[in-house]
Amino acid sequence: MSNRKSLLAITPTYNYFVKDQIESISSDFKSIDVFVYHNPITEISNYLPIHELSLFTKKSLIEYSGKPENVSVSTVPTFFIPIDYQYRHLGEKHYRKILNMIVQKKREPDLIHSHFVWTSGYVGARLKERYHIPLIISGYGYDLYDLPFKNPQWRERIRGILNDSDCIITVSNRLADYIRKLDVNTPVEILPTGYDGKRFYPRDQQACRRTLRLPEKKRIILTIGSLVKVKGHIDLIHAISELEGRSKDILCIILGEGNLRNELQKEIKKCGLEEVIKLVGRKPREELPLWINACDIFVLPSLNEGNPTVMFEALACGIPFVSTDVGGVSDIITSKEYGLICECNDCMDLCNKMLDALNIKWNRDAIQSHALQYEWDRQRQNLLEIYKKFM
């Protein structure tokens, strides 16, 4: 691809998989403009302990470290109260804000890539109509399996946005099925989120534990995710309660922040698991490889997912992955060599799979080798092949 082209990326975040994806292709473009939505109301959480808002502060949404010089990241401040009525009308607000920024900055992009269908996809569709340039929309999870099925109005809105795009990228076969249910005519490509191989790779477990001041002789179970209902932490607590009765040497660590923190803490106390389950909050991204390499197994108890980035990151570190059968997990955990899959909302099945995983002698090299195909340096070429069809 000619590196004289310009890309416009519209996204609600510039960290984790969106950041990795954009930076992996930066050398293939003259310039990439990234517009990140930001609700200034969330900054209240810098002064008040409002955990659910802290996930959406400017500091949480954007990670500048390592950003290439030809990637420009701009926040799009848009005040709105996070309720359904205002959320339904947010697309037009975001469109007007971004249009003004494009005009002021005198940008002339050759391609638009919207990350998530609402509101990024809506903005992308309006800009495509105005500037007559190709639009690619990536759908990652709730914007495909949840939002369009809330009511007929949301269904038609999401369906219309997807039909206005030139190509839809999604991260799993299961999410592609949701798109088909919407009767969308736009071509669909499946591209897993992948991981950053420069950060996530096998490291010495005991050295990582010493760095993090974790017990060296415990069998550590780790999960990483926002403390929200869909992540299934309540099920994990109940499964650990059962597991602790069978194995006294376990420690479960939950990384993340969110509005269920107090509820989860109460449930842990109710189950008498204060010494077994630790809520350690949100950690800097550069620490995550240490936490993953410090554990014996990684568990994902989610009730729904797109294609969890933490799955690729855990596998890349050679860590076996125990998960509910959600999103694209079964697309990736294709063998019991890499991990175990259990039923959703089944605490006993989750408990049994975790116990099995703790007792298996895993081939960490085989797990890491399986993950290599999803590293962003390799996924980059697949993404560029999609772009080439429209540029």
UniProtKB/TrEMBL annotation:
Glycosyl transferase family domain location: 206-365
Keyword Cell cycle attributed: no
Q: Where is the Glycosyltransferase subfamily 4-like N-terminal domain?
A: 71-196
Q: Which Gene3D superfamilies match?
A: Glycogen Phosphorylase B
Stretches of the chain forming a coiled coil according to its record: none
Q: Which InterPro entries match?
A: Glyco_trans_1, Glyco_trans_4-like_N, Glycosyltransferase_grp1
Q: Which UniProt keywords apply?
A: Transferase
UniProt GO molecular function: glycosyltransferase activity
Its transmembrane ranges are none
Source organism's superkingdom? Archaea
This one is known as Glycosyl transferase group 1 family protein
Q: What is the originating organism of this protein?
A: Methanothrix soehngenii (strain ATCC 5969 / DSM 3671 / JCM 10134 / NBRC 103675 / OCM 69 / GP-6) (Methanosaeta concilii)
